[in-house]
Fold this sequence. Notes:
This protein has helices at 2-23, 63-66, 78-86; strands at 26-31, 41-44, 50-57, 71-74, 102-105, 114-120, 130-133, 144-149.
Amino acid sequence: MKLRYLLSITTLFAAAFSAQASASCEVTVEANDMMKFSTDVISVPATCEEVSITLKHTGKLPAASMGHNIVITDTANVQGVGTDGMSAGLDNSYVKPGDDRVYAFSKVIGGGEETVLTFDTSALQAGGDYTFFCSFPGHWAIMKGKFEFK
Length: 150
């Protein structure tokens, strides 16, 4: 009887830990019409094989005039990716097609919209120097933060 009880408790803890681990691989970030994210750090455990970031645009302006997205790249590449993305256009979410400097990016959304960016983390290194930013023209210089994978 005690063994059965112990196994039930162990199973219960394992299930709770698994749910907690997967929940920490999911993050929500808000962006607004003032070109600000709700956080300047997104932190996920390096044990996450996949990460989901929900982006909510809490403003009112449309994507064509004040759209936001999330792009993840090495910090050293933010300016280059942002500059190259300007000519890619809204249809490409202001990310140059096939840009291998970009680990992941979401579509550009307007006020009142939300999108979910889900990506595989196998290309990331624990403790790497990563940045998340909005690649809408002119936004990348101020609308950014640290992406921690540790």
